[in-house]
């Protein structure tokens, strides 16, 4: 504006050097030609100068604005680049000159490539963050049980202020942890599902229905990802626990039924075919709950069938128990009879009533009978050697009596059909009789040893065996003495006098499987009803309740008027007195 206050000449001269000088000269020429006033000319020139100043001002202002914009762009680029470096966690940009120089446009051109590179890096980093965070959110939704999660990266928010590798690594670690947790949960789900299937197969139930009821995604038929939330794991665990408890209950019930079946089978002596039908139930008795895994081993049908069988056998138990009791009683009696032992007394009617009324335990009853039979067999085994010798002695006694009858037969040497047979039998009988003494001594020794060991009397058909043997020895000695006396008398008396032989009677228990001769011990032809024979036939017969020891000695009156010998009779009272000499208890 100071230039406008200078004189016109000076301004004109200054304008001549400018681009507008020609136009100003042309304007002066026009004014000169027109005769324009001096002041009017000054005013126009002043307006022209003012307009020029304004035009320059506008241009300067525009230049200033452009310069400011360039500075702002440069500053923003620098700030953006710095922001990229900070958020990406990098210190510098490769390819950017360290020294800043040149015009603003040159500086902008130098920073633009680095800025583009950083923008590409940021976009790539953001994609990585979105991918990782998307996986994190997806797995988190699966763990939380939200199967309606939408796999869209648009809804994922990313913090642009922190896109560093460290932050990305944190997200990747979180994703890795969630993947591990997901895999662990999937493994748990598979383990639970396998356990449910195994237990369902063992229990005979439908596993797919149970699994689908927990959640449809657990069924592979639906083709969707499995729900692995805490709630599903809790339900799966509860289902497995409930199935295990049901398995324990059923197995315990089958154990109870198996023991009941075993007891009933043993009680009723069931056949192999009947037992084989429920052998699988009996096999379960040796298994713990953890060992039972066979499919269909503890189904409800198995339990119901076992219960029905137990109920059926229980209804037949009373009649079968009585049948088995009678069978065992018969076995006991046969065992005692074979060994000539006394059969333990049993009130059959009372026991039958108790069985029918259920007041007595059937198993205990049969167990008691088994114990009695076992004791009887054990004692029979211990008596076997003695009984065999007693049987031999009995046979020898039969031969001895037959030989006595044969020796007293005056016609034994006469010619008859069976004379030679009787002669050979007499020879064999004499050999047998000669062994009686040693046999009796052996029986005595064994019997005494048996009684000392058992601390009770050895009874033979309710008669003390030692008393029988001792009585036999006494009778035999008396018999030998009498024979000697008769031989001496024969030497002294008249040959025509025939002394009637003494009659000796000796009783012996009659065996049911042996026939006793009807002839008396010392002759007495035709005396089939002699006292000795009556005693043999009645004294040791069990049907007469063993009324006498069976030992009776009687000496008849001699024709030579010899003194009478008191007859030895042992009735029941005398038998008791003989038995009382022994300190041990009587054998059964």
Automatic annotation (TrEMBL):
It is found in: Cytoplasm, Cytoskeleton. Its main location: cytoplasm. Keywords: Coiled coil, Cytoplasm, Cytoskeleton, Microtubule. Transmembrane segments: none annotated. Residues 53-80, 161-188, 465-492 form a coiled coil. Belongs to the MAP65/ASE1 family. This is 65-kDa microtubule-associated protein 8. It comes from Camelina sativa. The lineage of its organism: Eukaryota, Viridiplantae, Streptophyta, Embryophyta, Tracheophyta. The gene is LOC104776842.
